[in-house]
Amino acid sequence: DPLCRKAVRVSMGTVFQIPWTYIENNVKELGEWGFKTAAMALCEHAVSIDDQALMAEGRLALVFGTEGYGLSQSAIDACDYVVKIPMEYNVDSLNVAAASAVAFWQLRCQQ
Q: Is residue 45 part of a domain?
């Protein structure tokens, strides 16, 4: 919960500066609001976070799963993109805080 006291404290209040929402297992609703969706997931068909088509999207919503379980297959299937962060040294995943930080940094200059 981004509004729990600990999350607000460790984010230094930035949770109130970044637009976010809860979606009850209905990623397609984001498409109705004019967003393309990108599931952050480790899949063989995932594109890199620096993919040019992804970077060119005007309104992009990133979809993150929970720590440990990640996203459900139905959530992944509902997204327009499946995106991964390329890593070295046999690292296969990051926690959701680190993954979101990398993704937001990479996509910050999105056109």
A: yes
